[in-house]
Design brief:
The complex is a heterodimer.
Chain A: H1 10-17, E1 30-36, E2 41-50, E3 53-62, H2 65-78, H3 83-97, H4 126-140, E4 145-147
Parallel strand pairs in A: 1-4
Antiparallel strand pairs in A: 1-2, 2-3
Helix pairs in contact in A: 1-2, 2-4, 3-4
Chain B: H1 3-9, H2 18-23, E1 31-32, E2 35-36, E3 38-39, H3 50-62, H4 73-92, E4 101-104, H5 107-122, E5 128-132, H6 141-150, E6 153-157, H7 167-172, E7 178-184, H8 196-205, E8 209-213, H9 225-228, E9 232-236, E10 247-251, H10 253-258, E11 269-272, E12 277-279, H11 293-309, H12 311-330, E13 335-338, E14 347-352, H13 357-366, E15 369-370, E16 372-374, H14 379-384, E17 390-394, H15 401-418
Parallel strand pairs in B: 3-15, 5-6, 5-7, 7-8, 8-9
Antiparallel strand pairs in B: 1-2, 4-10, 9-10, 11-12, 13-14, 14-17, 16-17
Chain lengths: 155, 419
Amino acid sequence: MADSRQLYQEVILDHNKKPRNWGTLVQPTHRSEGLNPLCGDHIFLTLQLNDQKIEAIQFEGESCAICKASASMMTTRVKGQNVEQAQQMVAEFRDMATGKLDVDHTEHHLGRLTVFSGVRDLPTRVKCAILPWHTLQAALHSKSSVSTESGAENV
Amino acid sequence: MNTSLSSSSQKPINEFDVHRIRDEFPILSLNIKGKPLVFLDNAASSQMPQIVMDRWLCYQRSEHANIHRAVHYLSETATAHYEAARTTVQRFINARQSCEIIFTSGTTESINLVAQSWGRQFLKPDDEIILTTLEHHSNIVPWQMVAQACGAKIRVVPMFDNGELDLEAYAKLFNSHTKIACFTHVSNALGTLNPVAQMVATAREHGVVSLVDGAQAVPHLSVDVQALDCDFYVFSGHKLCGPTGIGVLYAKASLLESMPPYKGGGDMILSVSFEKTTYAPIPAKFEAGTPPIAAAITMAAAIDYLSGIGLDRIQAYETRLLQYATEQMKALPGVSIIGTAAQKAAVLSFKLDGVHPHDVGSLLNDDGVAIRTGHHCAQPVMQRLKIAATSRASFAFYNTFAEVDVLIKSIERVKLIFG
């Protein structure tokens, strides 16, 4: 198992402390709620789409640093992108976090989000990093909620 | 025999020698990421000493066959050890008779057995089940399931901010509809040690049956079910240095006799035909199929091991350890202890300002420190305290004061990282 200190880098700690695009849009066209019952990560995502372009995106909720920083950096990354580009990034981020995409040797669109690549070595934290992206995917598909446990309760 | 060597190398019998105890647990010498394991997740599951592991091996090597069936040597041997394990458990909690001990797969199954067998037999529409805010999900969900099936209602004992139950409110919940009161002996999330003897007495004054969840109590203090006078007492093997997959339901014999079987199968019958089946007497009536024989015998070895040290000495040592950990934790700015009941078992739940428990858990793991983070399967406690999760250090008698220091240092490092 990797040392998690490699994951808690300055950029992640900064986004955790000062999340970007924090809040809820007044008139969103799309919204979704993401829940990770395992650790209690719970986020709300609102989007404003215009002609297939993400014009505005905001999130809020209660979550661990990995989840919050992932959500914050996701919003800055997908803002201004079209739906197709955003979905491409969702797929790439998911593949990076689960170890299927080698960001060092494969072309990708994740930019600084590669700071999360180390999460693949921390199996219990993969879901924290991916939750915002699942929630974005659900919002784009007009689903109102998503859970990392597919609704199953973990006791 | 060199008696002088043994007498000089051994400490007086009354001294609690934690280092000698630790040597008996192979897993405690593990290194995690190059650092010595500091195992503080004992409330979830405890570790097993070599002598208890050896018991399992010995059983498989020279004693195993199916029980209560054949007339051959091994079957008789296995049966004798299995039934001796029942007697060990009986003595451990001071039950009147060994037939009052039912082996189950664990605390969860024990509670489900009572809920499904006793509950479906005796609960009628509008009857009431008393639970407490402190319960683990395993002492909530089985009751919700049977309440739904029988039309019964659940009433909940409120909790104060410090994690103690409101006993005045508890006493007021009883009425003519109340049929059973179920409560935990020790809270897994906060460590609160409930005054269960008093709570059982209150139930008895109202002619109400009581169930005590002892999963978190039996590893830490000596339990006497006759002194408590509870109707049901349940616990698991893996929390008291035994294996997983084995647990205990204690119930008064008269109650067990009044209850229908919970599962059907072999070993729980006297005779079977397609017209009529006659059930075996207790405890066999509740142990359908081949039971976890090796696990039961190994759990008994774990009980013998703990009894050999002495539960009173274990409790005294853990009380000092908890006190030390509590003082150290209190001295850390930005750290708050969740659960400050006057009477507690060795559980320390805490929160760090501005840091999610999951991040705390991951970073402590870098220092080899194993704690639990989350809602601890006790979401009603978290909802009551308006928090999503806590970090929880839970101690066993094999933990040391030096390990508490490692925990505190590791928390300080997390605080530094998060600024």
